[in-house]
């Protein structure tokens, strides 16, 4: 359904890779998306609702655009929202639109392989995070163990900092988040990458059921092309691609870490 008239209840959010240093670039990016949507007859809110709780955004019946994580998409959202497309952040050695987890440890930790961290304390952002929990779970379990000692940090930045501060020994981070942490956080110098997981589909863009996904895809694709080179570099955006719904749903889900 194409919306022709503005609706005060409309909502949009692009909070997944938000940092204070990027807020202005994200606002300009949204301004371009919104202008392109208007050209297609699709109304959208003037400003992003970046402070609204993520599940409230993703489940809003008036959602025009947001970005979610692959695990919430396959667990709870895939049959309730439109899959718009997947931004390509140009993650090294990953197909377009794919990403992976980096497993980071302290730079001065002398252990040289993942198996040496059996018994270590593991930091992960959320139970429902593909990069923070699901991908490392599959990666580590393939080596015959899992971390018995864990800390849920509620954010990739918090996970990385917990390792740097010695509160945990190893953390799983979204590769794009790690890129931003290295760019903006001095403590990143205290960390090193120990291992990498296999690539999986990146964070998809979604809209409420009934929204015109193809028109929104086109608006985003055009907006990325219209970004200044500076903003495109800041946001790390290379483009947008279509990853099939089935590719997201085929990824296995780990058990809830708080239930074992």
Features:
260 residues; globular; 12 strands; alpha/beta; 2 domains; 20% strand; 5-stranded mixed beta sheet; disordered N terminus; D-Maltodextrin-Binding Protein, domain 2; Phosphate/phosphite/phosphonate ABC transporter substrate-binding protein; 33% helix
Polypeptide structure, described:
With 260 residues, the protein is an alpha/beta fold. It has 2 domains: 11-91 and 201-249, 3-Layer(aba) Sandwich (D-Maltodextrin-Binding Protein, domain 2), CATH 3.40.190.10; 101-198, D-Maltodextrin-Binding Protein, domain 2. Helices cover 33% and strands 20% of the residues. It is built from 9 helices and 12 strands. Strand 6 (121-124), helix 4 and strand 7 form a beta-alpha-beta unit. The chain is globular, with a radius of gyration of 19 Å. The N and C termini lie far apart (44 Å). Mean pLDDT is 95; it is low at 1-6.
